[in-house]
Amino acid sequence: MNRTCAFFAVLLVACAVTAPVTATSFTGLGDLPGGAFSSFASGVSGDGSVVVGTSKATTGDRAFRWSASGGMQALGTLGAYSSNANGVSFDGSVIVGTVNNLQFSDFQGFQWTAPGGMVGLRSLGLTGDSRASGVSTDGNFVVGEGRYGVSSSFAFRGTTAGVFSNLGDHPGGSDFGRAFGVSGDGSVVAGTGSDFAGGFSFSWTAATGLIHLSGHPSSFGSTANAVSADGNFIVGQVELAAGRFAYEWTSAGGMISLGDLPGGSVTSNAFAVSTDGRVVVGSSSSTSGTNAFLWTQANGMQSLQDLLTSLGQGSAMSGWRLESATGISADGKTIVGYGVNPSGVREAWIATVPEPSALALAGIGGSAIALISLRRGNCSRESRDLRDALIARGNF
Length: 396
Known about the structure:
This protein is mainly beta.
């Protein structure tokens, strides 16, 4: 092996071994007092400091807000039977969700702030039943589903000051629409509607109106669950002949399947995406049931539990099975979801992982170590590619 090749082989091994693995953690969030033990996390603030979701109480479910300093706090019900929190602003100051009286009968969206508490969307001017699914990172826009009647619904975008807009629908199909995600400034909305072919994912802006997302040519339908803070990436699930797959969509590249975990039925679903689109989280079937996944552009889909174990969190997760990852911070380092805890009941959790470039290096590590056995003579093509990859990432 020539000296240059040997130098890069040693340096590649060193980078693989010393790639930063910082601030990795896993924590169960517990639940609210009263009722059976149960909690589900549905979202996390952009800065990673506040988790929102639902927990069992003595009567019905309760929307909660969790922070490391304040623990889990119930947000109220507006006098209804139950409530659930679905979305949270970047700094955790604005939370949106839905209150229900009798399951699916008589429900309305809400917004919550520390100064004002919980306020129903009817009080802000949205008539009829509604569900609030997402809020912009600046806290100024809320999106969700409004109702015309018993069976007809529409996707809406509203301001937290009380100006609501019906986002429209495509011709044909049932009269149905629901918005699930909104960009940081409220300019891009993603959700699900219906047309002649069935359910479809959509994006919406004031300039374009509602746009049917270009999907896989063999798609039987799709749903959109979230949009990145910059509005450039939408994630959800697409149904193909081979199964149901998590996807990521961009205007330039269209809809790409993110695959699924090995084993089980072919089913995966993406629920959240980082601002830059490099990290997506969700759930997938596998040999051990339904498991949370983390997908990166560098490494593809991985079991989040396996990844956290490899990063030193095996003891913290002993007895757990992480079922679904439902939220991610703007930088892709804080992830929330729910799983079955060591007592056999469902509990919300929060985890932190290295920043995306460090996760990409972890994927290079195994190949880098293999360079120890490079044949004598000039560097192999593989070693040069790895060298160039690390140079591009700023490691040399």
